[in-house]
Amino acid sequence: MNKKALAILMRARMRPNNSINPALSPLAKEMNQVNQNSPDSQSTGHAIRCDSEEPSEMRTNDAGNCEREFELVRTSMHSAISMSKTEDLDSILHNFSEGYSNLSIENRRKLLLVLAREYDLNRVHVRELIKQYLGLELPGVDKAQGSFSEEGLFSSFYRIERNLRHTLRPLYEVLFDRLNTHPGGLRFLSILRSDILSFLTEENISSLRALDSYLKEKLSTWLSPAALELHQITWDDPASLLEKIVAYEAVHPISNLLDLKRRLGVGRRCFGYLHPAIPGEPLIFIEVALLKNIAQTIQEVLWDSPPIPENEATCALFYSISSTQPGLSGINLGKFLIKRVITLVIREMPHISTFATLSPIPGFMQWLLSKLASQTKLAESDMSQSLAEGSSSTFWENILKPEEEKALMSISKDITSGKNGMEVMFNLLTSTYHKWTKSPELLSVLEPLLMRLCARYLLQEKKRGKALDSVANFHLQNGAMIERINWMADRSDKGLSQSGGIMVNYVYSLEHIDEFAYSYLSTGDIHASSDLRCTVEP
Amino acid sequence: MNKKALAILMRARMRPNNSINPALSPLAKEMNQVNQNSPDSQSTGHAIRCDSEEPSEMRTNDAGNCEREFELVRTSMHSAISMSKTEDLDSILHNFSEGYSNLSIENRRKLLLVLAREYDLNRVHVRELIKQYLGLELPGVDKAQGSFSEEGLFSSFYRIERNLRHTLRPLYEVLFDRLNTHPGGLRFLSILRSDILSFLTEENISSLRALDSYLKEKLSTWLSPAALELHQITWDDPASLLEKIVAYEAVHPISNLLDLKRRLGVGRRCFGYLHPAIPGEPLIFIEVALLKNIAQTIQEVLWDSPPIPENEATCALFYSISSTQPGLSGINLGKFLIKRVITLVIREMPHISTFATLSPIPGFMQWLLSKLASQTKLAESDMSQSLAEGSSSTFWENILKPEEEKALMSISKDITSGKNGMEVMFNLLTSTYHKWTKSPELLSVLEPLLMRLCARYLLQEKKRGKALDSVANFHLQNGAMIERINWMADRSDKGLSQSGGIMVNYVYSLEHIDEFAYSYLSTGDIHASSDLRCTVEP
């Protein structure tokens, strides 16, 4: 290949324009991959797909097939659970996972409900053991020495407790355990769970939720950090692994091979957590840029050639953390990954002393707009009610300061209308093509306002004691502090829609990680720089 | 280094003559290793060792130290269990494992009892939950469709069952879980368990047994084959790993570097299972020789230069399987290892079609001698009783055939005495320096006799439905069959003492592994070649 052709290839788009967002449709994505991994599945009896997207004249004909297909997979699932350990389990588990992957979404749902309900625990057996247990008399335990002279009396407790523990395990645990030791099984379990989660968002079925919570616990055990390997991803890694990085990069999409190569080249690092049972596919990966200072805008990070030599860097900036397995949702691998990456970077580059992120604030605009809309409504209904009632709604709050209100009302006349500052602001922020970002005058009014409200959103808005913003919650529970928010840090359409273009720096200091994580998780305390705290505290 | 010096080094003994048998004294061994791994432990406050082997005049002085030391470790154990997840656990776990490793054996025992008893489960809480549970009414479950319209009713079951599952977990699980995610923790847990096992052999304490059974279950989960990596061990591996092979080779000790190099060189293979949390130390390893035919004697395997080119080999002979962690006793990693090794060898060397072992029969002589001794005694007591009673003991059995009895009585006159064949045989076999092996006449009588009894021992002698011989049980549960027994296959002192020099070939055929393992585990069926079956069946 000549130089020119190579250059074209390196710059060619790597993801189709209309690629499905993996976070939204894990199922379709996973199904794709499973099918790619088993090219010969098309020639097996399980190959007929029953998705309802097929032309309707085919569906009648396929309904029988779907039913038959479902029964086949159901039978193989039953064998996988009930067969003795040493029979030919491998081929049964293989058939089951192949068969499942080829089922229509509706059949997958049906099958998972069968699993959750018919392979639950044996409640009759549980009750029998409980009765035996209640029949035991507790030996008097005296904390003083010699208290365990009655050691023998405890042995029946140990025995029944052990049996009870075993009996309280649902039958479907067998399937999970067997899949876990089957090649490719752990990956398949992660697909199963991502399906369960997606069905649960449609309908909250308690048996399915119990199945999910059980599977999640098992997966957490198997994916303990002790079993994970930290791997530095480089341009020398197999294409099949690099392909995954491209596919799953969730924060700043990788546009072409050249872009990918730059992210793995001088001035940057990329680390992933690999599990031996899911080879060649990091479960989670983190992208790092080596910088002079903590970056304020995404442009400072996504450079084409390194701005400084590596040995002059003092800051390692985590600019992207992506997990590849929707089925591992709720299992926090990020915390361990970040700690291990920091330790590794310090060892290799002692000149680096600051570890920070440049993170999106995905929930800011959504929160702000709904706040503005609801307050505007409340204000209206309050005014329509007689003021003589003497009590305005306690939920009503003008989130604008008087001078902000005034500035908004005076500047916006030509562009949009509104009865009060909040309505004006709502209309400005929801205008098409983010018009407000094109007017220097509007920007000068909105900048301090949005920055103040964003700081409030990050530092004070909570849900069940946790930060409302999902990314903030992720970093805070990992032990970070909020250092700084940056105006117009991400001017992309997504950035403007999500957070008005604001991005935030979280800082990890190795000596405080555990302390901060502890106080956040136990009391909900959010650590922030004093500058930022001043913005929101009177 | 010149050639001669190198040659001397390569031939130097690698293990001291009086090296401790790892199988007998895991504790001492592990303690050694832990201390080697932390050279600075001698300078810490925990360095005083309280073993009773110290001169007695020092002991009085040290008693206080021991007590103080114990309390320190007990406190760090308490912190490791009770501290919140995100506090500085790493250093606490480090202190605990360091401290534990420096405790005297008696203090270790005390500490483990504290753990087993004071960090057990909360029985009061269990009873409360049980009462709530019994208060729930089971919705009528009807197998027909629509039976789960009462889905909502189950949610309280799911909730309490989940709580009950959690409450039935002993508090010490926290310590195990935390150690598992702590660097070096899994290795430390394996040391803990090997200590527990060694204390249990001294005294059967039910709380300690419950602790052991719980830890064993946890370890099995963490060491699932999915988390293990198959690694071919070669001369290019780090010396620190190869050193482990030398230290743990349990079947045929490795005498010097040259011996080790040969075992990893042409005509041989060595594979190990590595766990990411115990780097550089295979949990179990297997040594393979590539041969023309299934070897009959150990000499055919322990050659200095390959007898045939590798591409002429048709048999892969597993001549040694050693596990390195006494703390993983009862967790069968061998089965998965053997299956994976077979698959790998077939892929790399399709000319190899036979997979067999040349294995010791460690329990044969012990069984035979105790059989001979007890039968001799029974015979005596029977004769001393009045024969008029009409019933000789039903346990009495002459394990010799009439012609064997005759041959033994006639040939042995000059060498040893005995009232009957069995007594003669007992005396012959227990003679010092295995004198019987030096007389061609005795050998000609004993060979068919010992071979027949050995086949009987392997094929028919059982304990709780399993083969009495531990190595036989290992291979049979892994799905092997007994192919052949070989006379004078191991003339070493150990070989003669254990099994009269007889060794056995087990054969693994990939297509039967699962079937044979299944029938052995479920019905106790032992598969054997027809030749061998003929020896024992009338």
UniProtKB/TrEMBL annotation, chains A, B:
Parts forming coiled coils? none
Note the Pfam families from the entry.
MCD (PF05292), MCD_N (PF17408)
Q: Name one GO molecular function term.
A: malonyl-CoA decarboxylase activity
Please list the residue ranges that the record marks as compositionally biased, kind Basic and acidic residues: 48-64
Q: Where is the composition biased (Polar residues)?
A: 33-45
Name all Malonyl-CoA decarboxylase C-terminal domain ranges: 227-508
User: Which Gene3D superfamilies does the UniProt entry name for this protein?
Assistant: Malonyl-CoA decarboxylase, catalytic domain, Malonyl-CoA decarboxylase, oligemerization domain
**GO biological process assignments:** acetyl-CoA biosynthetic process; fatty acid biosynthetic process; malonyl-CoA catabolic process
Q: Look up the record and report any one GO term of the cellular component aspect.
A: peroxisomal matrix
Which residues does the UniProt record annotate as the domain Malonyl-CoA decarboxylase N-terminal? Answer: 159-222
For the region Disordered, what residue ranges are annotated?
A: 33-64
What is the name attached to this protein's record? Answer: Malonyl-CoA decarboxylase
Organism expressing this protein natively: Acacia crassicarpa (northern wattle)
